[in-house]
Amino acid sequence: MSKLKKSILGWLGEKFCEPARVSKVEVISEHFRLIHVDSPSFAKLKWKAGDKIQINVGDWNMRTYTPIAHQPLLSRIQLLVFIHGDGPGATWAKNLKRGDLCEVFGPRSSLSVSSYEIPRVLFGDETSFAVAAGLKNYYGNTIDVSWVFEVASIEESKQVCERFGIARDTVFIEKQNNGSHFSQVMTSLRSRLDGSNRTELFLTGNARSIQSVRNAIRDLNHSNTVLFPKAYWSPGKVGLD
Ligand SMILES: Cc1cc2nc3c(=O)[nH]c(=O)nc-3n(C[C@H](O)[C@H](O)[C@H](O)COP(=O)(O)OP(=O)(O)OC[C@H]3O[C@@H](n4cnc5c(N)ncnc54)[C@H](O)[C@@H]3O)c2cc1C
Predict the structure, then answer these.
(1) Which of 1, 77, 127, 150 to mutate to test the pocket of ligand 1 (most atoms within 8 A of CB)?
(2) Given 33, 112, 133, 170, which residue has the most CB atoms within 10 angstroms?
(3) How far is the CA of 239 from the centre of ligand 1 (A)?
């Protein structure tokens, strides 16, 4: 990042961000951390599942995450972060310890549930476990939502999803670099989309996978399937959002 960009971001950050402190870091598995973040601004927060928060993960690199829970009495939110490489967000999550300070912007609205009655399917990857866990925490069984995830490790993903109560009836499909797993993704999605009733399909995770699913769904001519795409990352792009 150029010096000028960094100093502009720093100036904006100091003006608009809130100070926060990490109160606990739980190692859920090799690639997942559950991070408890406290900030006085979280006491009065009106959190909804699916909201996003931006965090200064160092040098004013802002990265976006989805709080999975809000504990107003503790002025706390919890994040479930997937460590996938050595970008600033992954490095931050990997090295984080209790007492570390950071700056936060939000939470703000990102992906929301409009009404309780409509069945939903959420497609995504490891970065989407947080939105799924948040929906589960917030709505319990009052909404009908099923999950289809493309993941690098089925074993690790199942273990993490079990911990957050989102493994039951969940489809885990092993990602292949050449995209050959996509037919399995579409078979799973098609079996969950009833062409005759309104179903909401949340598309999260990798922008490229979202685009492929969108194209395939369009070809199905399902007028009752309503898409809500929200890319969480895109190959080669940093800090999407
Ligand atoms: C609204 C929203 C909510 C999100 N919520 C969460 C959440 O709760 N938990 C969570 O873990 N992530 C979440 N993400 C995704 C997260 O912000 C990105 O993965 C982010 O790029 C991580 O930053 P980084 O510094 O580690 O990598 P970056 O510096 O941003 O990227 C470095 C490289 O890694 C690639 N990359 C980024 N993510 C992945 C990935 N998952 N797999 C493989 N390659 C990748 C990039 O394309 C780039 O080439 C969310 C994103 C958005 C937009």
Answers:
(1) 127
(2) 133
(3) 6
DSSP string, 52-65: EEEEE-STT-EEEE
* Digit-coded pLDDT (tens) for 70-120: 999 999 999 999 999 999 999 999 999 999 999 999 999 999 888 888 999
Please tell me the distance from the alpha carbon of residue 51 to that of residue 131, in angstroms, as a whole number.
Answer: 8
Task: Encode pLDDT of 133-182 as tens digits.
Answer: 999 999 999 999 999 999 999 999 999 999 999 999 999 999 999 999 99
Beta strand 32-38 with 18-29: parallel, antiparallel or unpaired? antiparallel
List the 18-29 sheet strands across, edge first. Answer: 62-65, 52-56, 101-108, 18-29, 32-38, 76-82, 67-71
Gap from CA of 48 to ligand 1 centroid (Å): 21
Protein residue whose Cα sits closest to atom 47 of ligand 1: 235
Residue 126 and residue 94 in contact, taking contact as beta carbons nearer than 8 Å: no
The CA 234 to ligand 1 mean position distance, Å, reads 8
How far lies 236's CA from each of 32, 90, 223, in Å? 21, 15, 33
The two structure tokens encoding residue 105: 């912007």
Residue 239 has a CB neighbour count (10 Å cut-off) of 14
Residues in the ligand 1 pocket, defined by CB under 6 Å: 52, 63-66, 79-82, 84-85, 87-90, 110, 126-127, 130, 232-241
At 43, list the tokens.
């006491």
| pTM reported for the whole predicted model | 0.96
Helix (H) or strand (E) holding 149: strand 145-151
CA of 130 to the centre of ligand 1 (A): 12
